[in-house]
C-alpha cells in the first residue's frame, strides 16, 4: 500500500496491474467499466482516490494557512491603526489640557482671579485597547538597554509573522534596485509580484501585527535573512520616526553595528532609511510638533518638572511603554508631560518658528515669519511705511526713488516659502537719496524727505494700478520747502493731518501739508545741536518730542514752540555722549512713554511727565537704528546694524523674537522697521536694498 | 573693516548727518570689503570720489568675476539714470514727445508690455527703468550678487540697449537737460565706455556722439 502510494505520488505509474488500470486511469470512464471489478483494480482505484484526496487536502491546508495569515495580517494592521489613533487622541487631550492651563494662567495674570473652566483635570487615557500588548511587559523602553530589548522583540515578531520572507524579499529587491545590482532571482521576482501590498506599507503593518504564523520556507542564507530583518526594522523605525526621537536613530546605528553577522547590504541601510523618510508621507505638521516636543522635553528635564506633575501623569508614564512600538522612548513621554509648562519655556524661546503650535490662536504669542521680500531698489532702503488699512506699503531708498507695493499682488518665488512682490509704482522726483517717509492717516498721501532737504507730498496711486501705466504728473502733489539740509525723520499725526520733520539744518518743523499755510512752526534747541529724529507725543497731540545730537530729547509745545520738558541723559556712567547718539525716537501710542534707540546698543525708556529715564537695556549687538511700537502699544520692534530685528514685550521688556533680516552694506544693515497700523504685518528695510515683510 | 589701524571706522550715515557729510568716510580698500555688496560699495566709492575718472571706475579689480562686475555697474547706471528721468519728467511731455525716438530713423517700442507698445517717450523711459529694476532684482535671474549665471549675464545686453535709448532721446530732443546732467555725472560717457569695453552693445547703436569729442583715448583703451 505504502509502496504504491508513493509510486502514485511519484508519477502516477500503474505498477504491475497494467491491463485494467488503463481504464481506471480516466475517472470519467469508471461507470462503463463497472463490470470488470477485480481486487487489484479496486485496490488500485482506492489507492488512487486516496492519493487524490490527500493532495487536495494538503492544498486546502495551504489555502487555509494563507487565509489565516491574511486574517492575522489585517488584524495586526487594525491594531496598529488603533494604537495610532489612541496616541493621537491622547496628544489632542494633552494639548487641550495645556491650552486650558494656559488660559487659566493668562486669565489669572490678567484679572487676578482663577478662571472657572469646565474640567481642569489632566486627561486620563483609556489604555484598554493596548492590553493585548501586555505580553511584552518587559518592553519598558526607558533606557537604551530596554530599547534594544524592544528591537529584539520587534525582530522576533517579524520572524514569527508569516510574511517575513515576503517583506525581506521585497526589501532585498529594493535594496538591489537601489544598488543597481539587479541580478534578481526568479523567486524574489515572484514574491514581489505576488505581494498584495507594497513594501513600504507592509513594513509598517507587519511591525504592528502579532499573528502566529508558520514561517514559510526560505531558500536564502541565514545571514542575508538576518540582514534583511535589520533592514526591515530600520524601515519600520523610519516609518515611525516621527514618533521617536533622534537619539533613537543613533541607537539604531549602534545596534546595527553591534550585530556581528551583517550582510554588506546592511551598509545601504542608512540610505534606504533616508529614502523611506522622504517617501513617507508623514504629516509634516505632526513631525514638527514632535520635534518641538522633543526639544522642549530636553529643557524640561533640566528643570525637573517631572516632580510637579500630577499623579495621573505618572500613571501615563507607566502605561506609556505599552503604546505602539516606537513610542516608548523616554523623551517622548517627558515631552507630553511637559506640555502644561510649555508657556514658561516659550516666552524666552527666541527665534523659534514653530514653538507656538500649542497656542497658535493666541495672538499674544504670535511668531513672525518672513513672507514677502520686496526687491526692486538699487540701493539701501532708508524708510518704509504701511498704508493705514490696506496691505500696501511704500519704501524709500537711497536710489532716489520711492516704490509702492501691494502685498496681495505677488509673484510666487521658486523653492522658498517667501513671495516676491513687484512694485506697482515708482515715485520719481527726488534727486538725492530719500531718507524719510510717512503716510497720512487716510492713506491718500505720503510724504518723503531727501538728503537735499526737500519734502515731497505725493498722492498715493490706487493700489491696483498697472505698474506700466501712463505717467501721471499729478502724483507729485507739492514740495514742502523750508529745510536747507537733509530731512532725516518724518512723522504724521493722523487725527490732525499734521506732519513733523527733523532736519540736519538744526530745525524741527511742523507742517500742515494740505492747507494754505503749510509751515506751522519751527523748533530748535541751540544747546543740543542737530535733531536726529522726531515724533508726536501721542497722548498729548499738541506736543512733539525730538532727539538731538547731544543725546538729549526735548519735548516742545506745538503752539508756543517752546521746550516743555527735557529728557536728559545723565553722563554719570561716563560714556561718551557721542557713543549714545540717538538714531530714532518714538512715543508710545497711549502711555506717556518715549522710547529711544541708541548707537551704544541700548534702548531707553523715558517718562514724559517727569522727564526721567525709567528703563534702559542693551537690546542688540550693535547700534539700534530703528523702533516701532505696535498699534496696541504692547510690543516694540527694534532694528539694528547687527542685521537683526527684535520684537520686545513692552510690559516686561523681554525679547520675544529675533529675526536676522538683512545684510550689511559698509557698516549699515537695518535702517527702518514698521508695524502695520491695522493688519498683522511687520516690515524691515535694509541697506542691502531689500525690504522684508513678516506675517 | 573695523579696527583697521587701531581706531574704529564705522562707515555709517547716522540720522542728522548733513548732506555734505553723507557717505563721507575714509575709503575702504576693495580687498577689505567682506560683505556681499562689496562690488557695489566699491563702485559707489569710486564714483563718489571722482565721477569723471571713468577709466578707474570701470577698471575691474584683479581676479574678479566679470559677470558680477558688469551686473553691478548696470545696476548703478540704472540707478543714476533715474536722475535723468526726473529731469525729463519736467520737460518731456506726451504731447511733445509722443513717441520714443532719437534720430528719425527708429521709433522704439516699449517692451514692458505684453505686446510692445508705442509709448510716449517719458513713459518709455519710466517703464524701461522700472522693467530694468525688476529684471536686475529678479530672484529668478539674479538670485545672488556674488555670482551670476552665464545665462543671466546675457540679459544684461538687452537692458543696456534699452536704457541707452534714454540717453539718445535726451541727447537729440532735450539737449539742454542732457548736457546739464552729463556735466554733473559723466553718465553717458561712462555708459558708452562701459558697453564698449564689455561688448554689451553694437557700436552702430551708440548714436550719441560722446566719445568722439574728448574721450577717444578711453575708447582706444577699451
Per DSSP E runs of 2 or more residues, the count of β-strands of chain A stands at: 30
The string of secondary-structure elements of chain B, in order, is HHHEEHHHHHH
Mean of pLDDT of chain A: 71
Strand order of the largest sheet of chain A: 5-6-1-30-29-28
Overall morphology of chain A: elongated
List low-confidence stretches of chain A. Answer: 1-30, 125-142, 181-221, 240-286, 299-363
Question: What percent of residues of chain A are in strands?
Answer: 15-25%
The average pLDDT of chain B is 83
Q: What oligomeric state do these chains adopt?
A: heterodimer
Largest sheet of chain A: 6 strands, mixed
Strand order of the largest sheet of chain B: 1-2
Find the biggest chain interface. Answer: A-B, 57 and 49 residues
Kindly report how far apart the N and C termini of chain B lie: 33 Å
Overall SS class of chain A: alpha+beta
Radius of gyration of chain B: 18 Å
Number of strands of chain B: 2
Low-confidence stretches of chain B: 1-6, 214-222
Distance between the termini of chain A: 88 Å
Biggest β-sheet description of chain B: 2 strands, antiparallel
Domain Striatin N-terminal (chain A): 39-168
Organism (chain A): Hypothenemus hampei
Family (chain A): Belongs to the WD repeat striatin family.
Biased composition (Polar residues) (chain A): 1-23
Q: How would you describe the overall organization of this protein?
A:
Chain A is 33% helix and 24% strand. Chain A has 695 residues and is an alpha+beta fold. In chain A, a hairpin with a 3-residue loop joins strand 21 (593-598) and strand 22. The longest helix of chain A is centred in the N-terminal third of the chain and has 73 residues, at 39-111. Chain B contains 9 helices and 2 strands. Residues 1-6 and 214-222 of chain B have low confidence and may be disordered. The chains are: A alpha+beta (695), B mainly alpha (222). Chains A and B meet through strand 16 and strand 20 of A and helix 3 and helix 4 of B.
